[in-house]
């Protein structure tokens, strides 16, 4: 598939190490997701541009604000990973990362496992569980430098459920809309004062073709 000049420029701005390989992998992912989505209704998907913008580009924007993600071999947990966004996209873009996608839906984790096989992603694992279930297990404690989530529960809920999984000096990064941030940033600041975490948000940014406005809520020491 030929991408528009705007989408090519946006993708190039993320400085992905092997862009040709990444684009080919994502196109294979799009075709596989489109086929499987017709059977299992995995995610909202209306056309190629929406896939590239609302799923791939949206997933990648995290490295604009947190560039360490593309430079270091970090372990990242993606909570409520759905059909693999951002986990599959980040695993394909930055092979040094180690991604763990955590999702309670069996049909979605089955899809992600098959997708990682089709795409030959060696740096991604998939767990079928709720976040609080894996967080309660000793082997998952202090396991991740970054915990992220996109289009799932509130920041406060995810923080409460996953705190034991985060390494000391680790970071939360949550994909949000500006409207969600208005309420959730205040909420998590109020409720987590005694936890030692501080919370902030990035500046807002717009996805191409007016497909949405986004921001990130993140923790810092």
Provide an overview of this structure.
It is built from nine helices and eight strands. The protein is an alpha/beta fold. The protein has a single domain (5-10, 19-220), classed as Rossmann fold, CATH 3.40.50. Strands 1, 2, 3, 4, 5, 6, 7 and 8 form an eight-stranded mixed beta sheet that branches. The longest helix has 22 residues, at 19-40. The termini are far apart. The mean pLDDT is 95.
Which tags fit this structure?
9 helices; 8-stranded mixed β-sheet; Rossmann fold; 43% helix
Spans of at least 5 consecutive residues with low confidence: none
The helix/strand class is alpha/beta
Count of distinct strands: 8
Distance between the termini: 43 Å
Largest sheet: 8 strands, mixed
Q: What is the rounded Rg?
A: 17 Å
Number of domains: 1
Helix content: 40-55%
Give me the CATH superfamily. Vaccinia Virus protein VP39
At the first level of CATH, the class is Alpha Beta
Order of helices and strands: HHHHEHEHEHEHEHEEE
CATH architecture: 3-Layer(aba) Sandwich
Provide a quick synopsis of the model.
The chain is α/β, with parallel strands linked by helices. The protein has one domain: 3-Layer(aba) Sandwich (Rossmann fold), CATH 3.40.50. The chain is built from 9 helices and 8 strands.
């Amino acid at each position: 598939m030929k991408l528009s000049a705007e989408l090519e420029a946006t993708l190039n701005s993320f400085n992905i190490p092997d862009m040709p390989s990444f684009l080919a992998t994502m196109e294979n992912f799009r075709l596989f997701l489109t086929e499987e989505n017709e059977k299992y209704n995995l995610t909202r998907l209306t056309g190629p541009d929406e896939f590239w913008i609302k799923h791939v580009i949206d997933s990648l924007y995290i490295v604009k604000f947190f560039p360490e993600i593309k430079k270091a071999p970090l372990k990242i947990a993606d909570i409520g990973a759905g059909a693999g966004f951002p986990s599959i996209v980040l695993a394909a873009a930055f092979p040094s990362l180690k991604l763990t996608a955590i999702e309670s839906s069996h049909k979605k984790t089955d899809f992600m496992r098959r997708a990682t096989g089709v795409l030959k992603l060696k740096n991604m694992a998939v767990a079928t569980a709720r976040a609080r279930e894996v967080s309660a297990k000793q082997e998952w404690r202090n396991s991740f430098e970054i915990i992220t989530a996109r289009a799932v529960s509130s920041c406060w809920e995810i923080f409460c459920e996953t705190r034991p999984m985060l390494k000391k000096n680790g970071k939360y990064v949550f994909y949000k809309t500006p409207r969600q941030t208005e309420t959730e940033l205040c909420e998590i600041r109020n409720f987590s004062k005694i936890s030692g975490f501080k919370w902030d948000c990035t500046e807002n940014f717009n996805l191409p073709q007016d497909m949405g406005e986004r921001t990130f809520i993140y923790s810092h020491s």
